[in-house]
Amino acid sequence: MNFVLLIFLPIMAALFVPLLFRKLKDIHTGWFVLLVPVSLFIYYIGFIKTTMDGGHALSELQWIPSLGISFVSYIDGLSLLFTLLITGIGALVVLYSIFYLDKRKEKLNHFYVYLLIFMSAMLGVVQSDNVISLYLFWELTSISSFLLIGYWSTRDGSRFGALKSMMITVFGGLMMLGGFVLLGIMGDTFSIRELIASSPTFVGHEFFTLALVLVLLGAFTKSAQFPFHIWLPDAMEAPTPVSAYLHSATMVKAGLYLVARFTPIFAVSEVWIWLVAGIGLLTLFWGSFFAVKQTDLKAILAFSTISQLGLIMSLLGAGALAYHSDDPIFKFATFAAIFHLINHATFKGSLFMIAGIVDHETGTRDIRKLGGLMSIMPVSFTVAFIGSMSMAGLPPFNGFLSKEMFLQSMLAIRHFELFNFATWGILFPVIAWIASVFTLVYSFYFVFKTFAGQQKSEPLPIKPHEAPVGMLVSPVILATLVVGIFFIPNLIGKWLVKPAVMAVQPDLYNHPSEVDVDVAAWHGFDAPELWMTVSLVGVGLVLFLTLARWQKMYDIQPEYLSLNALYDSAMMFGEGGMNKLSRFYMTGLIRTYLIYMFAFIASITAATLFIKEAFVVDMDSFSPINLYGVLTAIVLVVAVCMVLLAKTRLSAIIALGAVGYSVALFFVIFKAPDLALTQLVIETISVALFLLAFKHLPSLNNHGQTKRNKIGNLIIAAGVGITVTLIALSAHSQKLIPSISQYYKDTVATEAGGGNIVNVILVDYRGFDTLFEIAVLSIAGIAVIAMIRLKLSRKEESTDENQ
Amino acid sequence: MKTNDVILQTTTKFVFFIIFLFSIHIFFAGHYTPGGGFVGGLLTAGAIVLLLLAFDLKTVQKALPFNFTIVTAIGLLLSFGTAAGSIFFNVPFFTHAFDYFTLPLFGKTSLHTAMIFDAGVYLVVVGAAVTMIQTIGGDE
Question: Mean of the pLDDT values across residues A190-203?
């Protein structure tokens, strides 16, 4: 089967959503939408067998073959893992949204269309083997994320957050496109597989580091890495199902996917390791540190997502060390990264859904107002507890396993000798430890401040109660996975993680089973990571219990020194500056614009004509002067002078008509009946139009123009006239290439089946021109309507005001 | 002051049809002799302008009850459709087809997809020109 087409299945399904929403009002549209991710998930599960054997599946759809651009669905361990996440979590999120979004109050037709577009785009990102189509899908995820964040478009926060995420991720996307183009130049192909195959030749290429940085910019902006993470907290304005889906489980992981996918190309570079591991670790710390500051449940989760993404990023960076050393301790990192990616999707997805439930059932997400919900919402509490403890890295939850592996990988960096790691490498485990302490603090903060303790004296906006069963299904499934994976980590490893690791590091392994990692919860008392965990739990608990005393410390940082303030001022400056710049030359007067255009045309053509020494006059080829020509020319000149000297507009219009008709006479004299006919009719109609518009025009003498303006206009007008004459003379005097007219004469009857070359050119030879011209004509017609009608409605408004 | 346009109006009633028929002729003749959709459309528009000058806007709108914006849209669709139609025959965009047929009354006649394209051009020109004139003329 041509499974590349399945990428487009959600977007095709989106076409029917508005119809279903309108026609079947009694059934929540989400039930129909749910079929899409579920069926895709079931279909893609079938690929596990292939990838477990280290194989891959390929399906191609040509798009622009001449430029080497196609839609390729390349399914290996890595893309399959992401595909299953997208469709699996997608199905759970859609199920959850059915109960979260009211079918009577919400614009479900919009919501599910955006969501399905996103699903297609995301599948495209992770399956595309062609970097150009990857980029296309990448931007489509940004756009659909923009639409989903701005779903409640009447809220200021939604629009602001949507714009912010769009600005940052599209900026990154464009940088990434630049990187892709450079890679395309280096490898002479847009296929990722072929790029990987020829990557050894890239090292030392002058574009190599530049391409690396550009691709990383794309990944970092998308995956909310420091300092681009600022868009993610603002993106929390989106409906909670969207936050759970896009902003924790899938879209923000696209950056991680990109880094993993391009590891075989770039991992040899020192810059890559330092940037990916370093920025990842910094983000891990930054996110976990600031998560404790937040008071909004979703904001806590947003910062924790940033932090966890940083964790996976740093693991991917550490995984690249395996390219430089054969020591098996460096091979843990990539496995840990992929493993944690799965775990994070499960526990963070469930936590987001719980945050949504709390919001839905209590009417607030402000953690200062919440408390003591444990007895009222026992199921939600259990799920939140499981998710948070997994996030904190405690047993018996899957987060514990990957967290241990993370600490193990960070400890291993101490033993790496190259690239200054011998001096600075010790920082990695230290920062990782500090960040993990804060991770534990915010995990406890999230779950216990909401569910434990006493209810606040101030009543909640809604009387709290447990969520409906349908809403709890998805988080409970995810929480079951969180616990389940703890007990069968090696099965997950065999099915999903090892094939993905092999896809990330294809040069190191020939078969997924060669990835020699065995996940175990217990490593014995002499394992350093055990003591790291024990110590961080201890310190974290102390910090959590004393939270009230030191949380105020966050207020020390003034608002104007934050990255958000920097973004805001950059946006303000950009907007204000561009506004000023465009107001400087956009005066709103047509005559100014005409001056720009004509002055530019005259100067640039005249200059080119003389610089290229193209100005030649060959008198021999001119037609002989005859009496009719001379007479018509005299009429023409007299009419032009009349236009210039006319005292009233009416006489100017009539004189202009005379100019047009005498030009038509020239066409008659030189035997161009088509042109003559068109010119005559055009002239008639334009005079009639002028007369119609006549009464709207101001009187001729009142232009508000000074003498200097007029002299300037005279110079420009004369310049254009002279330039055009010179071009006409030169063009006629020298024929550098044979004229195409002979071709027209030869083919007009045989190829085009016509007799009149002028008309055949219009409709056949150069039909594109005509096609666009009539399009322009229609647009002009609409513009006239818009202009006049707008003026009319304004008039009506103003009379209303007077009354 | 109300002007007396009896002569103009009476003449217009005849001349309009002459111009209109001529424009149709010009349109069909285009592929072999001077003319074509563009000129034909302009001529028709000219004929309508003549009507507008002789009678007032409302009378003309009653006599020709078309929404000329829609005429423009139909024309545009027709042209784009003709150009795009070639895709379905697995030939490049905008490939025209023609053949010669012997029709009753006309004798040997060439039928050409360019004619359909040109009809689109004709409709767009008429539609856009009349839309503009009506809008500007109707703005009091």
Answer: 87
The closest alpha carbon to A252, from A297, A311, A318, belongs to: A311
Angle at the Cα of A261 from the Cα atoms of A181 and A265, rounded to 5 degrees: 60
The answer to whether residue B129 neighbours chain A at the CB level (below 8 Å) is yes
Q: Where along chain A do its domains lie?
A: 7-545, 547-586, 626-702, 741-803
Provide the residue type at A699 as one letter: S
CA angle B16/B18/B20 to nearest 5° reads 65
Interval A734-784: pLDDT, tens: 777 888 888 888 888 887 777 888 888 888 888 889 999 999 999 998 898
Strand A57-64 with B98-103, pairing: unpaired
Determine how many CB atoms are found less than 10 A away from the CB of residue A655: 18
Distance of CA B3 to CAs A417, B8, B26, B51, Å?
102, 11, 34, 16
Q: Which residues of A lie closer than 8 Å to B, measured between beta carbons? A: 673-674, 677-678, 681-682, 684-685, 688-689, 692-693, 696, 752-756, 758-760, 762-764, 767-768, 770-771, 774-775, 777-778, 780-782, 784-785, 788-789, 791-792
Cα nearest neighbour of B39 on chain A? A678
pLDDT, mean of residues B49-60: 84
Rounded Cα–Cα distance for residues A93 and A100 (Å): 10
Sign of the torsion formed by the C-alpha atoms of A126, A183, A172 and A280: positive
Instruction: Work out the minimum CA distance from A588 to partner chain B, whole angstroms.
Output: 21
Distance CA A717, CA A727 (A): 15
Quote the pTM value. 0.76
